[in-house]
Amino acid sequence: MTEEEKKRQIIAPYYPIIYVRGYAMTSDEREETFNDAYYGFSASSVEKRQATKANGYEVADIFEGQMIRFMKIKDYGYADSVNYGLRDFHGAPSRSIWVCRFYDVDYIKGKVREIEAHAEDLAKMILVDIPKRLKEHNVTNIETEYKVILIAHSMGGLVCRTLIQNILQSTGAQLREKYPDSILGNLLDNPLDLIHKLVTIGTPHKGIDMGNIPDFIEKSIVSLLNPFDAGIFHEKRMRDYLKLPQTTEFDVNSLGNSGFPIERCLCIIGSDYNSYGKVRYATGGFSDGLVKQDAAYIVAGPAPEKDKGYDEKKVAYYANVHRAHSGYRGIVNSYETYENIQRFLFGNLMVRISLGDIKFTDPVIENLEYFYDFEFSLSIRGTGVYLHRREQDPCENAIRFNRDDIPHDIHLHTGFLNSSLQLGDDGYSYFILKFNILEYRIEPGFIWDYKYPSRQIYADSMEVKVDTGKDGNYKAAYRWFSEIGWNDLVTDENNRYTLPLKQGVIDGTIRIEAAPWGEKLE
User: Suppose 201 and one of 4, 44, 88, 268 were both cysteines; which one would form an S-S bond, judging by CB atoms 3.0 to 4.6 Å apart?
Assistant: First the structure.
């Protein structure tokens, strides 16, 4: 196959990317959205980063925005499809970026449609419009290889779920009748396979809870601002458009019986409550300023039994980034979000990190209650930022357990690496793991700590390097930042690396499991 012929082929995993925007509550917001060619997804950000003394120790670090990055990076080679941008594109037309402009009709007609109508617009774009445009540009394998990637912010994630859990639950025959202009043929018989991956960014999968104001005032405010879809983030209405029963069988953030694989989903969760607008005073902390952190992820299947959490394999992949719901420090235009997304979409190595066999060596003082905050952050070499951050201060999201309830395995994070992004030529991908464990001692009957506000009983950082397994085997090594020299790691039959925590008042192991991205970790 010649290079020119390859350009006319859809080649995994570089499928068309569709951006789906969030909620525009007021008429002014919808007007602003209508007049933005990219619906806000071209937003950039600038951060102050540490630098040398010659540069005054700080410099401006410019991030052009994820949409621009996908177009600028040669290995991805994505094209802007807005205004028939593919016409003069000399790359592969299937590597194209699209924006679902569902608010255009609302603005032009002066009436906000319901979320089901927005999802219908997205369905038409996927099933009819994009395939037609690709065919016009001589893409030859649409009928066999066509898929799309969905990247959605805020309410856009609910639009995507409405597509998946509602519209695409139709049979192939029903879809062919509904979309007679579709050229997808037999692909319509398995419509969920058309969604290669779903990324949601700051999406209120459990709805929006303005916890600091009474419910009746909240409903009045929202109804006044937007009487057409005031209940869009309330559970009863959500269950309606997501085709979930009005019972407790499924939580509202569940994919229900849709059949869409949870491992195809990534949820980016924000924690910078203080950088959002005034609405943050209504929603309260433990949020990105609008969406609570524990409401921003997707699960699969029925709800677990009372007082039991979801099995890890029933929860979408996720990353916690210290960003606000929108704005200059917004979650969409953040470098952290982009770095997570590009590795989830195009990476070739999945890494699961956990703590195991945690035991305490210090004696327990009678009549005191003990609980612990396990804090963990991950950075990949070359990014300069934390791609995943669980810290109580400032993120309000440490992993907390009572002393007697600490599980055998504490899942810290599952992340993704891409060997094509390596800075060096040694074949390794490098990442940093930062650990911090705080102990709290509470005397019954009092609301404050016993003697101290908290006790830092463990704190250290380590660097890990893992090769990409091109020969079918993995090589890995680690070094603590407080030590010099690398220590080799040896895997068991499950490609699991185990190393001890440094000795102290806490014993346990760090577990690192690696697998080609796409294969499940057992």
Answer: 268
SS (H, E, C) 101-122: CCHHHHHHHCCCCCHHHHHHHH
* Sequence-distant contacts of 227-235: CB under 8 A, at least 24 apart: 228/111, 228/112, 228/113, 228/114, 229/112, 229/114, 229/115, 232/23, 232/115, 232/155, 232/158, 233/155, 233/204, 233/207, 233/208, 234/207, 235/206, 235/207
Where in the chain are all domains bearing CATH 3.40.50.1820? 1-346
Amino acid symbol at 50: Q
Instruction: Please give the Cα distance from 71 to 73 (Å, whole number).
Output: 6
- CATH pick for 348-522 out of 2.60.40, 3.40.390, 2.40.50, 3.40.50: 2.60.40
Which pTM does this prediction carry?
A: 0.93
* Type of residue at 446: F
pLDDT tens for the chain, residues 1 to 522: 787 888 899 999 999 999 999 999 888 999 999 999 999 999 999 888 888 888 888 889 899 999 999 998 888 989 999 877 677 677 888 999 999 999 999 999 999 999 999 999 999 999 999 999 999 999 999 999 999 999 999 999 999 999 999 999 999 999 999 999 999 999 999 999 999 999 999 999 999 876 555 554 555 545 544 555 658 999 999 999 999 999 999 999 999 999 999 999 999 999 999 988 766 666 678 899 999 999 999 999 999 998 889 999 999 999 999 999 999 899 999 999 999 999 999 999 899 999 999 999 888 988 888 999 999 999 999 899 999 999 999 999 999 999 999 999 999 999 999 988 876 778 788 999 999 999 998 887 665 555 667 889 999 999 999 886 666 677 889 999 988 899 999 887 666 899 999 878 899 999 999 888 865 554
Fold (CATH) for 1-346: Rossmann fold (3.40.50)
Amino acid at 183: I
Q: Which residues contact 382 (CB under 8 A, 6 or more apart)?
A: 421, 423
CATH 2.60.40 residue ranges of the chain are 348-522
